[in-house]
Amino acid sequence: MSDAPKSAELFERAQRVTPGGVNSPVRAFRAVGGTPRFMVSGSGPYLVDADGRQYVDLVSSWGPMILGHAHPAVVAAVQAAAAGGLSFGTPTLGEIELAELIIARVDAPSLQQVRLVNSGTEATMSAIRLARGVTGRHRVVKFAGCYHGHVDALLAAAGSGVATFAHPDSEGVTGAQTAETIVLPYNDLAAVEECFAAYGAEIACVITEAAAGNMGAVAPLAGFNAGLREVTYKHGALLIMDEVMTGFRVSAAGWYGLDPVEADLFTFGKVMSGGLPAAAFGGRADVMGQLSPAGPVYQAGTLSGNPVAVAAGLASLRAADASVYAALDANAHTVGRLLGAALDEAGVAHQVQYAGSLFSVFFADAPVTDFAGAQACATWRYKPFFHAMLDAGVYLPPSAFEAWFVNAAMDDGALARIADALPGAARAAAA
Ligand code: PLP
């Protein structure tokens, strides 16, 4: 591990005034050890830290930066919007345009209206409230290993058994708050059917990541999402497709563009706001029409639809043309191929798994299809692997359970840096 004196100094200072020194836990490097890098700037595929070291960025701000950092069109749009006023607390034209663009790009018959919020967490929280309001039912089904933000009722993973009433994952979340959450194994349609056979009349909704990216990249098995659609429809429950991570990243229309399953509600975030805080949820007009002020389900936000965030989102989506998606796919597969070859050469058992252009590596002999499989991997190999890459100037997610996020700005130089770094990192993982 190379030292990073300026980052270390800043981390010490941060820990005095911020819990754990960070504003979101995974940034703290707890899973890999060492000093989290404090970044000072980003440009294209690169980040520069406080010690002046440059990294090829394979985190892309946890997904949003598909165009790379400081994309000129997005920066110009943000500057222009900011110059015109930062927030009005009134409706604005940009909000209509962003809603129209989201609806047009996904182009799903069931996505007719969207509401803008400030984070993916707000989007999923609001979608669940709406599902409960619309159905008059209380239970929510989620899948182990799927993350939907830090919504109290969703901070729960499975215990044993098929249909497990969830136990909270976090102190401060009460048993009552998760008691109505049922956690099932991902990719297990039989478990979903069994659960609905027992509790179908009480289930308001099933929420699933359109493709799981929060236990590493685990795509839904063929027919899984469609099966969820069928079961929920049969029992009068809503299906919430969480596209916060996949939306506008894995294709112009998100996961829906690859696997067009009609959800009742979709949630979006990350790419659609170009790196500023905004997110959205949407669905059929009759469902969305139940939201206040049109309907009885309350939902609101002082900064929702903020003009600067909306401008960033519009500029990002407008710049993300077919060539951007071709580059994301090509870069993901190039890095994945290099990664697999380096691990083969070092004799490390592994699976490079894709969900569209999201991908990650599992240190396992067989493909991973659920959270139990992800947890059973030799995750201890990731720590030395991560640090070897970091030392060689490649910034990976500081946790074995996160997807890798390429961007379209990665050029030959960035890819060459990754190619040069991988053999040493693979040897470190083998040790
Ligand atoms: N849903 C999914 C699938 C996510 O990956 C995330 C965050 O990573 C969220 C929801 C929560 O979004 P946010 O961090 O903006 O609250």
From TrEMBL:
SUPFAM superfamilies: PLP-dependent transferases. Its EC number is 5.4.3.8. The keyword ATP-binding does not apply. One of its GO terms (molecular function) is glutamate-1-semialdehyde 2,1-aminomutase activity. It is found in: Cytoplasm. InterPro entries: 4pyrrol_synth_GluAld_NH2Trfase (IPR004639), Aminotrans_3 (IPR005814), Aminotrans_3_PPA_site (IPR049704), PyrdxlP-dep_Trfase (IPR015424), PyrdxlP-dep_Trfase_major (IPR015421), PyrdxlP-dep_Trfase_small (IPR015422). The modification N6-(pyridoxal phosphate)lysine is found at residue 270. It is an enzyme of class 5 (isomerase). Belongs to the class-III pyridoxal-phosphate-dependent aminotransferase family. HemL subfamily. This is Glutamate-1-semialdehyde 2,1-aminomutase. The gene is hemL.
